[in-house]
Design a protein that fits this description.
The protein is mainly α and 95 residues long. It has three helices and no strands.
């Protein structure tokens, strides 16, 4: 039994779905697709400045927002959301 089930929590896995095709795509698939000319992962530019982080919007914020909207969450009916972070990214977790 999972932690969520043991504690009466619903665990929902959300995916990034391409609007035009309905294809479910992972970040890795998006980064390595043929003809891709953009990097959506956090990078540093040659001058040390941070690059774009569109993966956060496309693969986290947007998919969670879409799921909440489907479930009827709104400003008037807010939802409580817990987001899991894998142990290999534990240093990115904040309280």
């Amino acid at each position: 039994m999972s932690f969520a089930a043991e504690h009466g929590l619903e665990l929902v896995v959300v995916d990034h779905v391409m609007k035009r095709t309905g294809e479910v795509r992972t970040l890795y698939q998006d980064l390595t697709r043929k003809g891709s000319r953009s990097l959506k992962i956090p990078i540093r530019m040659s001058n040390g400045a941070p690059g774009t982080r569109s993966c956060t919007v496309q693969f986290k914020i947007k998919v969670i927002g879409d799921e909440l909207k489907l479930r009827g969450a709104s400003a008037q009916h807010p939802a409580t959301v817990g987001i899991g972070i894998t142990l290999d990214e534990i240093d990115r977790a904040t309280a």
